[in-house]
Amino acid sequence: MTVSTPAPPDLLSPAHVADPWPGLAVLRDHYPVHFDEGLGVWLISRYDDVRRLASLDIGDLLQELIGQYLGDAQAFFAMDGLDHRRRRALIAPVFARPSVQRFADQVDRHARALLDPIFERERQAVRAGERDRAEIDFVTEFTASFSANVMIQILDLPIPDHSRMTSWFSAWINAEGNISRDPQIIAAAQQAKDEFGEIILPVIRERRSGTGDDLISKLCRAELDGMRMSDGEIQSFVATMFLAGGETTDHQLGWAMYELASDPRIQQELAAEPELMTNLLAESMRYHAIIPFGSRLAPADFEVGGVAIEEGAQLAVMYSAANHDPRRFENPDTFDIHRTDVDPKKAFNGAAQHMGFGSGPHFCIGSHLTKAEMETALRVFLEHARDVRIADDANPAPDPASPFVRSLASLKLSFELV
Q1: Domains, in order of start, for the chain
Q2: Where are the bilayer-spanning segments (predicted)?
Q3: Residue 272 class from Cβ within 10 Å (0-12 exposed, 13-18 middle, 19+ buried)?
C-alpha cells in the first residue's frame, strides 16, 4: 500500500488561517525547507532551523515592505548589525522592566476606565432580569481600544479618531505582507504615513527642548556616544510602538482570554494561585504566535536542512510552526500552563524558549510592556468576573481577512459578576 505525501498548505487560504496547525505539521514533517511558489519565499518551519535563522540580518526587505511607510528614516526593526545594536542600546532603557513598571498605574487606570462602565451596565441588566449572566465582547468592547489607549497615554499624544488609527494599522500590516507589491496597498500605507506624520511630527519638535516624562520626550533626550534619534526615526519608532504595542498586544490579549474562558480549570487555578498568570501568558505567547513568521534575506549561499539556498533569497522563519514543533515541545498542540519546556520566568526576555516575540537580535524590545498590559487587563477583569465562558451564540475564530496577523475579530463571553 502506497501512502501519498500530503501537499504543502496554502498559507493564505481561509482554511489554513482558521486552523493552521495541521498544515504547519505537514510543512515540518514533509517540507521543512520549502519554496512557496505563490509567495516567492522559502518557508523554514522546524524549531532548530527557525531559531538559528532568526538571528540572520533582515537586510532591506522590511524597510521596503513596511519601514518606509512609518516615517522618513530607516525603521529600527529594519536595521542590522552595528546600526541596530546602537539604536537598541539607545532605546532599551526606556523599555526595561523598571521603566515599564512606572506606567503600571496608567495601564491599570485605562483597564478600569473601559471595564467599569461595562460591569455597571451588566449589573443593571442582570438586576432587571434582562439576562441571567453578564456579557461582554472582550475584543470589540475592550482589547480593540485598551492597548491603543495605553500607547496614547504613555506617549502623551492627542487622541486620534479610533477608526483612523485602525485604518493605519490595517494599511501597515497589509504592507508588511505585500510581497506582490500591490499598488493599492502601497498607496494606503503611504497615506497612513502622511496622516500619522501630521499628528506626530509637531509633537516631536515641541518636545525636543522639554523636560516631560512621557516616552516621546524620553526618546528625544536619549543619547548614546553623542548620537540622538532624528525626528524621522522617532516618528518611525512611535508608529512601530502603536503597531506592536497596540495592535498585536490587543490580539495576544484576546487569545489569552479565549484560553482562560475555554477552560474552567485554569480559572480555578488562577484563583488559588494568582502567580500562575505568568504561566498563562507565557503559554499563550507560545501557542498563539500573533505574527506567524518573520522575514529574512539569505546573506550568502548556504544550506538549511540539506537544501541549498541562494544568496539574496527571501526566507520566512515560521514562528508559529516552530512553537508547535514536537521536536522541541511535548504535546505542542495542547495548551498547558504547567508545561516544563517553557520557563515562564524567561518568557518575556531574550532567553524565551518560545518564538512569540521572535528571537535573536530582533527579539521584541517591548516584551515587558506587553506582559504588563495583558497581566493588568486580565487581573482587573477577574476582580469582577467568575465562571467566565465563551457565550453560547459565539463562534470565535481567527480573522480570515488577516492572514499575516493571527487575530480574533470577536470574543463574546458570559460570566457571573463578583
Answers
A1: 61-298+330-417 (1.10.630.10)
A2: none
A3: exposed
Contact (CB, 8 A) for 247 and 221: no
Tens-place pLDDT, residues 90-119: 777 777 777 777 778 889 999 999 999 999
**Could you state, in chain order, the average pLDDT of each consecutive group of 10 residues for the chain (418 residues)?**
83 91 97 93 96 83 85 84 81 76 86 96 97 96 88 76 76 76 90 92 90 84 83 89 77 96 97 97 94 86 93 92 98 97 94 91 86 95 97 90 84 97
Burial of residue 8 (CB within 10 Å: 0-12, 13-18, 19+) is: middle
Residue 59 CA to chain centroid, in angstroms? 22
Task: Give yes or no for a contact between 319 and 353, defined as CB atoms under 8 angstroms apart.
Answer: no
Reported pTM: 0.89
Tell me how far apart the alpha carbons of residues 72 and 19 are, in angstroms, rounded to a whole number: 38
Extended beta strands in 51-114, E state: none
φ, ψ dihedrals at 315, nearest 5°: -115, 140
Kindly give the pairing relationship between strand 314-317 and strand 41-44: parallel
The phi and psi torsions of 333 (rounded to 5 degrees) equal -90, 10
CA distances for 23 relative to 26, 39, 327, 350, angstroms: 5, 16, 16, 28
Grid cell at residue 380? 482587573
